[in-house]
Amino acid sequence: MAGNSKRAIIQLESTEGTGYRYTVTKSKRLHPDRVEYRKYDPVVKKHVIFKETK
């Protein structure tokens, strides 16, 4: 999927320190910097900030 695509596959890791991760794609053109999203962490059972990891 990532071959010549304009979208990059990234991992989002929880800031709560649980180690839970989401794998998503993002547009390289619209979001050239690292992104943050507020998503559900099932380990702590609440919504927290997830940050992009390399």
Overview of this structure, please?
It is a single chain. This protein is mostly beta strands. The protein has a single domain, classed as Rubrerythrin, domain 2, CATH 2.20.28. Helices cover 0% and strands 54% of the residues. It contains no helices and 4 strands. The chain has strands spanning 7-14, 21-27, 36-41, 46-53. The protein has a 4-stranded antiparallel sheet, with no helix packed on it. It starts with 6 loop residues before the first strand and ends with a strand.
Count of domains: 1
- Number of DSSP helical runs: 0
CATH superfamily, by name, is: Ribosomal protein L33
Known CATH architecture: Single Sheet
The helix/strand class is mainly beta
User: Roughly how many Å apart are the termini?
Assistant: 18 Å
CATH topology: Rubrerythrin, domain 2
Main sheet: which strands, in order across? 2-1-4-3
Shape: elongated
Spell the H/E element sequence: EEEE
Please tell me the overall pLDDT. 93
What percentage of amino acids are in beta strands? over 45%
Rg over alpha carbons = 12 Å
What is this structure's SSE topology?
Blueprint: E1 7-14, E2 21-27, E3 36-41, E4 46-53
Antiparallel strand pairs: 1-2, 1-4, 3-4
Task: Name the descriptors.
elongated; Rubrerythrin, domain 2; 54 residues; mainly beta; 4-stranded antiparallel β-sheet
